[in-house]
Amino acid sequence: MAELRHVRAEPLARAIEAIVAAGGSEAREARLVAENLVTANLTGHDSHGVGMIPRYVDALLEGGLRINQHPEVTFDGGAMLALDGRMGYGQVVGLEAMQIAIERAREHGLCVMALARAHHLCRIGQWAEQAVAAGLVSIHFVNVISRAIVAPYGGSDARFGTNPFTIGIPLPGEPPFILDMATSAVAQGKIRVAYNKGERVNPEWLLDDRGNPTSDPRYGVVEPFGALRTFGLHKGYGLAVACELLGGALTGGGTWHSDDKSKRRVWNGMLTILIDPTRLGTAEAFAAETRAFLDSLRRSPVAPGFDKVRIAGEPEREARAKREREGIPVDSATWEEIVAAGAKLGVERARLERLAQGA
Predict the structure, then answer these.
(1) DSSP class of 277
(2) CB of 55 within 8 A of CB of 264?
């Protein structure tokens, strides 16, 4: 079992920021990347947190990630937009693309935004949170151009990525509904986290290199690679294909159909639909029905093993409150990978340790 340390969010962000800056990113970009990754950790999504930095550094060094990029508008149809992420950090490209789309949704009542060729957009829920903070409903279909890691339903080897699907809905009188999920049974990063911690995984999540269910996380991390499984059997598979076709093909960013497993870059395409609910003329009914439905859900008797009925978004908010109090757990294997990534860019271990400790 790998040793855990608990690190405060702000010092951890400064350590990650130093690595990103060492790669040539401007100060704003380094800060946005670091804060985005740490926010993923704060919300309990360690799979999308600071443990991604080694992958980012490798992608930068191989040329699949470009620094200091901004989204380029390639089609402007008013309420319809196509943007090219120019292989830039998704933390910057995603933020700025959503800002453009939010402005259009406020103007037209809705916006359909196709974003292609962004480097890893990280936790898609963050872009839904950006939309709901502006009072907008958001729907996101995302594909992944990287090493294939998920098997199709009925197949035994990997053919596509974890292809996230996300919905954000502002709720009158309470925090928003944020459904943010991979279409695989689990995010690939959670397999990496389990491997680094020396833990087993649910065999319903993973296939070995022969297509058999396995609880050994190494099949998702090192060769010979196996494959993740889709959630809900054919249902998750169907949604994964929709994400590939909408987030990849329709955005123009491309779909995954390569046998090349060598590249470290992670490119995302994202089709985003934004809706201003105040423009539909249903605001009064929406507020009343939302409250009645949620009250009904929460009156359900609590099942054995649970403490209460939750809706999507609540676990992340609870995790954030806890980790802001207690610190972010970072296992020793992940920290050593981060230190090694920093060394590739000339950032010394001693400096990272000082920054992470708040010195």
Answers:
(1) G
(2) yes
